[in-house]
Amino acid sequence: MEPQFLLPDVEDPDAAEFWAGCARGELLVQTCANCGLRRMPPRPMCPRCRSLKFRWDEMSGRGTIWSFIVPHPPLLPAYQELAPYNVIIVELDEDPALRMVGNLVASRDGPINEIDPATIRIGEPVRAVFQRVEDVVLPRWMKT
Amino acid sequence: MGGALADKTAIVGIGQTGFAKGLPDSELSLACQAISAALDDAAIAPSEVDGLAMFSMEEGREVDVARNVGLGDITFFSEIGYGGGAGCGAIGHAAMAVASGQCNVAVAWRARKRAAKGSRPWAQVNRRITGHWQWSRPFGVVRPVDEIALLTRRYMHEFGATREHLANVAVAFRKHANRNPAATMHEKPLSREQYMDARWISEPLCLYDNCLETDGPLAAVIVSAERARDLPQRPAYLHAFAQSIPQQHQVMTNYFNDDPLVGPSYACAKRLWAQADVTPDDVKVAQIYDAFSPLIPLSLEGYGFCARGEGAAFTEGGALEWPDGRLPTNTSGGGMSEAYVHGFNLVLEGVRQMRGTSTSQVDGAETCLVTSGEGVPTSALLLRR
User: Fold this and answer.
1) CB-based contacts of A37: which residues, under 8 Å, 6+ apart?
2) Which B positions 38-67 lie with beta carbon below 8 A of chain A?
């Protein structure tokens, strides 16, 4: 059997719109339709006004690196094959409290183990790109 | 003035049957053996037990434990969630039940087997990820160590913490384990050089920043302070207890609020110290949850032993080491060098410090802080002589 990545369930009721946005090349953030609070990760109720109504706002896709790691084995087989690879957390320019976990790549379709980890810096600006993995499109990040 | 629960109950029996990498018995059998040993230690008959508190991760259920050990009519039972956050919670629930008259003799336990289904959830994930894990796992944040490494890197960046600080933690706990014959790492010293040369697991964390993987059951018996005075063991009174799920907390991947480096220990500590008539300055020994070394500086800050950002510097000069450190911590070796059993060994070591029977006994320690998992909904205890 092929080593398998852990992929999001794109039909998850709270998150389906996010993944559909990625498939269109859009980075969407769930936003309360009543009070305007943006929230990540998405969820049914606004923690500020308790509204159940929300919309999905497209972000610029620009942000900065808040933290990063370099996982090494032992890992699940699909990830072990790529290790060591990088994982970053990005703060979005629109609101630093909106953070997303992702990976730094050298090109839109590049692998997550291509960038030399020694060159990754907290505070570096990045922009979102969208990469197909099997039947799912994941956001990845490139240095700007 | 202490809180309503202060010194009303005590841990009067502890039991453990040994740690290993792979024990043949089932979690249920191990749980029954540890509970049985704890009741013998307390000199209390199983038929007197009427209260139960356990980790929700336990494979053995309350009814099965009760039928095996021959417990009496159970009138209180409680399960605490979130793995490593649950240990002190189970003791605290048992104590509240005894103090409020819901039961008279309660037992709390954890019988972890690393091979057991509930024990290592990351190794058994479904391929399609739902819920909050879908915001981290697809990107290769596959293990708990990866989740905590992301917070660690940020902590190092913000506060100037270094690997030297993390080595202070690993080396101190190993020294304590080397003094404890029950510890998995009893015969294996760890030098600073070994730490620095160790292989990476998830940079910036190396092998020795991680806890062990251990099978092993532990149990504790809780009764009223009044009853405790008639029993053979020196009571470890439960002076204060708290739990916390801080606002906007997310389990392990707590990256999505204003300040992810303010972990669950802050809210837990606020409640804990408000219930106590002592302060961090009065505490001379601590058992702090250590699934990963960086949880120690984060917890030292959260529980008020130093200011925010100063936890790494706190570990300097042997501060965590027996016998002369400011705060000898994890005096049995903790999760990193005694056994990783979701932190329940920390509770038992806290009891031994209050009895005066630790293999790294801290002179004059009247109070011991015990904490459960940082990074998850958590709990903490102050034990007292």
Assistant:
1) A31, A46, A47, A48, A49
2) none
Is the residue at B75 inside a domain?
yes
Res B51 pLDDT > 80? yes
Q: Considering only A53-57, A94-98, A117-121, B147-151, which range has the smallest mean pLDDT?
A: A94-98
In a domain, B178, yes or no: no
List CB contacts of A82: < 8 A, sequence separation 6 or more: A111, A112, A113, B140
CA dist., res. B53 & res. A75, Å (int):
34
CB distance A101–B136 less than 8 Å?
A: yes
- For residues A35 and A45, give the distance between their C-alpha atoms in angstroms, rounded to a whole number: 12
Flag whether B198 is in a domain.
no
The full set of domains in chain A, from first to last, is: 10-58 (no CATH), 60-144 (2.40.50.840)
Query: Closest-CA residue in chain B for A14?
Result: B131
3-class DSSP assignment, residue B122: helix
CA distance A106 to B7: 60
Kindly tell me if the per-residue pLDDT of B321 is higher than 60: yes
- C-alpha distance from B211 to closest chain A C-alpha (Å): 15
Q: For B154, name the nearest residue in chain A, comparing CA atoms only.
A: A67
- Are residues B55 and B90 in contact, defined by beta-carbon separation less than 8 angstroms? yes
List active site positions of B. 289, 340
- CA quadruple B165, B168, B174, B177: dihedral sign: negative
CA distances from B319 to B156, B252, B383 (A): 19, 27, 21
Give the pLDDT confidence score for residue B122 in this predicted structure: 59
* List of chain B residues whose C-beta atoms are within 8 Å of the C-beta of residue A47: 248
- The rounded Cα B347 to chain-centroid distance in angstroms is 6
Name chain A contacts of B138, Cβ cutoff 8 Å.
Answer: 5-8, 133, 136, 138
* Separation CA B367–CA A63 (nearest Å): 47
Strands B106-112 and B51-55: parallel
Token match 């408000």: residue? Answer: B274
Residues B73-122 have pLDDT tens digits of 999 999 999 999 999 999 999 999 999 999 999 999 999 988 666 666 65
